[in-house]
Amino acid sequence: MRIRCPHCGERDNGEFSYLGDATVIRPDGMDASPQAMHDYVYLRDNPAGPHRELWYHAAGCRSWLVVTRDTRSHAIHDVSSALEVALARRAGGAA
Fold first, then answer.
1. Distance (Å, rounded) from C-alpha 14 to C-alpha 57?
2. pLDDT band, very low/low/confident/very high, at 7 (cuts 50, 70, 90)
3. Does residue 94 register a pLDDT over 70?
4. Which of 45, 57, 60, 86 is the most exposed place for a label (fewest CB within 10 A)?
5. What's the CA gap between 3 and 54, in Å, rounded?
6. 46-90 pLDDT per residue, tens
7. Is 3 exposed, middle or buried (CB count within 10 Å of its CB: 0-12, 13-18, 19+)?
8. Distance, CA of 81 to CA of 55 (rounded, Å)
């Protein structure tokens, strides 16, 4: 599998570390109930099909990326900078 880093170009997935589901939003730690924090840490879906994941380019530019990958075929549909995704989410966009 090859991942197209927005900064370094296409690279082998061995340069990257998979870091989990990119769709989960962390509850506010100061106001979150213990149950909400438990659910955030331990409960995850295991989707079949396109899924947004966090990847870290450890052996390259050290950027965090949001990769949309089909979990059935491993086909990569989109790669975005995690910073851009987070800023768009904060601004109310659909990134």
1. 9
2. very high
3. no
4. 45
5. 12
6. 899 999 999 999 999 999 999 999 999 999 999 999 999 989 988
7. buried
8. 10
Q: How far apart are CA 53 and CA 1, in angstroms?
A: 14
Residue 84, Cβ density class (10 Å: 0-12 exposed, 13-18 middle, ≥19 buried): middle
Number of Cβ within a 10 Å radius of residue 23: 13
Q: With 90 as the cut, is the pLDDT of residue 17 above it?
A: yes
Q: How far apart are CA 4 and CA 28, in angstroms?
A: 32
Which residue is it, tokens 């800023």? Answer: 87
Bridge partners of 56, per DSSP, are 17, 64
